[in-house]
């Protein structure tokens, strides 16, 4: 569902090597009103965690020179800190999903925040998409943006943002998105019910490894759904490399599409689009540990001072009374 009453959203995409922001407006159609990108020094963000908050703050200040400073954003949680799972079972109660999450997400139970959406709800086959993350990591990012004076409306998944951007609606026939750049390759299989398969691997320059993983995704989907994947969508910097499209078509035996415009990061744009749409699960900071300032309001200080004075006066009067007695 698209909400037309909301006129503007700001999406922020974060990786270890860059941050990107897209401001999106909707006036009958999506339009990018402003955007910006800043490359990060090595070590500022490491595996999706903030390592140097001072340098990261400076990078965001630089980023917002070209984009109007936002007071509210949708943040794409770094891929390294996001857990996407697809569960299929006859029992899709909240209790069953919670048990599956706690059993399969490699985090302590108390440190897991998750949400889910039902993609397929048929009698014999049900599919649920779960997004999960660490409470600690979510709190770190939330508190960082608070320090900048920015509120995070919710946290999105980069993988879901890419799917949202590539497909304006769910594909009738199964399709596979391969997003590959110098650092990370994502393999995302989608069908009429939404995301059906998601896998990420480090890009090493070995295209045979990418082909092997894509074939594995095709086999998995064919085994689970008894259907073949008929379309391959190539995005990311590697997709624009000479010969890559032909190489993929030859090895996978299906047509590949790689002519999508990529003037901005696909994830940042897809993240901003989530502000106008519903359906995909997102993460909120509710329930996560939050930083509370140790500073006390002036009224509280005055109250404590007044109480202290009163206690001293009462003590003096008691001592004086005892002396007179």
TrEMBL record:
Chain ranges passing through the membrane: 298-323
Keywords (A to Z) from UniProt: Membrane, Transmembrane, Transmembrane helix
InterPro entries tied to this protein: FtsA/MreB
PANTHER family linked: CELL DIVISION PROTEIN FTSA-RELATED, ETHANOLAMINE UTILIZATION PROTEIN EUTJ
Name recorded for this polypeptide: SHS2 domain-containing protein
Species whose genome carries this gene: Candidatus Ryanbacteria bacterium RIFCSPLOWO2_02_FULL_47_14
């Amino acid at each position: 569902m698209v909400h037309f009453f909301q006129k503007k959203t700001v999406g922020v995409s974060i990786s270890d090597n860059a941050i990107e922001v897209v401001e999106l407006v909707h006036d009958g159609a999506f339009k990018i009103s402003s955007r910006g990108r800043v490359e990060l020094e090595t070590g500022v963000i490491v595996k999706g965690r903030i390592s140097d908050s001072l340098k990261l703050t400076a990078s965001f200040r630089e980023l917002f020179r070209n984009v109007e400073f936002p007071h509210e954003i949708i943040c794409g949680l770094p891929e390294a800190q996001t857990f996407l799972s697809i569960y299929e079972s006859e029992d899709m109660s909240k209790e069953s999903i919670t048990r599956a999450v706690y059993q399969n997400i490699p985090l302590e139970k108390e440190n897991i925040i998750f949400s889910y959406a039902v993609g397929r709800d048929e009698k014999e086959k049900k599919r649920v998409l779960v997004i999960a993350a660490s409470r600690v990591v979510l709190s770190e990012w939330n508190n960082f943006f608070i320090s900048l004076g920015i509120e995070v409306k919710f946290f999105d998944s980069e993988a879901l943002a890419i799917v949202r951007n590539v497909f304006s609606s769910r594909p009738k026939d199964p399709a596979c998105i391969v997003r590959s750049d110098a650092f990370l390759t994502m393999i995302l299989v989608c069908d009429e019910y939404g995301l059906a398969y998601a896998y990420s691997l480090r890009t090493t320059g070995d295209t045979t490894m990418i082909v092997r993983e894509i074939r594995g995704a095709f086999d998995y989907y064919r085994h689970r759904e008894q259907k073949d994947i008929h379309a391959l969508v190539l995005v990311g910097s590697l997709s624009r490399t000479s010969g890559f499209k032909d190489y993929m078509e030859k090895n996978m035996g299906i047509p590949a599409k790689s002519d999508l415009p990529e003037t901005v990061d696909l994830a940042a744009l897809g993240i901003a689009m989530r502000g106008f749409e519903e359906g995909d699960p997102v993460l909120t900071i509710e329930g996560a540990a939050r930083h509370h300032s140790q500073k006390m309001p002036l009224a509280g200080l005055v109250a404590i001072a007044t109480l202290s004075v009163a206690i001293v006066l009462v003590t003096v009067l008691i001592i004086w009374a005892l002396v007179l007695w």
